[in-house]
Amino acid sequence: MKQTAENKAREERIGEITADANDMEEIMMGWFYYLDDGITFPFEAECIEQKQISPLRKGEKVTVLELVSEYDSGKEFFVFIEWSGRKMGVPLAQLKPLKTDKETKQTVEDWQYWKARRYLF
Questions:
Q1: What are the residue boundaries of the structural domains of the chain, listed by start?
Q2: Residue 109 CB: number of other CB atoms within 10 A?
Q3: pTM, whole model, 2 decimals?
Q4: The domain 8-116 belongs to what CATH superfamily?
Q5: Could you tell me which residues come within 8 angstroms of residue 53 by beta carbon, excluding any fewer than 6 positions away?
Q6: C or N terminus of the chain, fewer CB within 10 Å?
Q7: What does the alpha-carbon distance between residue 79 and residue 95 come to, in Å, rounded to a whole number?
Q8: CA distance 96 to 98
Q9: What is the pLDDT of residues 84-109, one digit of tens each?
Q10: Residue 78 near residue 31, CB atoms below 8 Å
Q11: CA dihedral 40, 41, 44, 49 (to 10 degrees)
Q12: What is the pLDDT of residues 45-94, one digit of tens each?
């Protein structure tokens, strides 16, 4: 699998998110607050990869409604989406924001970068 190239601007933002963290739980909390502050809901998104834990197929478009509580997420962040007339949670990492503001797009991409670089909590 191809390694994601380092992005210095993203690394700086991630450094700010995790700077005061002393353990995995604090890193997770830092990420949760970064995502919660940086994403404007609702927004339209497209599935960019299929995952076993999600019913979405690559290319499917959905409305992203809100971030799932950090206590429900484990080591992945989930968002609630509107899908087939139902509200359900899917991994944020599998979604590409479409028509949304610059900060939301950057925030989601920062999380996807973290996951792609295989950083851990």
A1: 8-116
A2: 15
A3: 0.90
A4: Calcium binding protein CcbP, beta-barrel domain (2.30.30.530)
A5: 90, 91
A6: N
A7: 10
A8: 6
A9: 899 999 999 999 999 899 999 999 99
A10: no
A11: 90
A12: 999 999 999 999 999 999 999 999 866 666 789 999 998 899 999 999 99
